Amino acid sequence: MKLTQNPITARERLLEVIRILKTYTAEDEMLSIHDIHSHFPEDLQVGIEAVREDVAALVESIVFPVTSLQKKKGMPKHYYYDGRPFLQLTGILMRKIAVK
After folding, report:
1. Measured between alpha carbons, how far is 21 from 94 in angstroms, rounded to an integer?
2. Distance CA 65, CA 10 (A)
3. What is the pLDDT of residues 14-55, one digit of tens each?
4. Which residue in 64, 93, 90, 91 sits closest to 79, CA to CA?
5. pTM higher than the cut 0.90
6. CB-CB contact of 30 with 79 (8 Å)
7. Backbone phi, then psi, for 7, in 5-degree steps?
8. N or C: which end of the chain has fewer CB within 10 A?
């Protein structure tokens, strides 16, 4: 990420969250909100709540598939980007099989 003297905008922050999820996550390699937040350089002063809101928006999005998993109530949620071509193809095939 290019570091500048200007503060990061909400759009740039969201794009960086997307990049982090696409780069560092998979179904077997999930990240918590704190893990995602730790990928931002400290000098950008990105708040954890802002990252939490961005991830929540992505989880609700139908455009950028992010899946959340919480093993037990009270434990932190973990997230991963669920839109890799193989996973999308598998989902399409599974839907076609279910329709038959």
Report:
1. 24
2. 20
3. 999 999 999 999 989 999 999 999 999 988 889 999 999 999
4. 64
5. no
6. yes
7. -65, 150
8. C
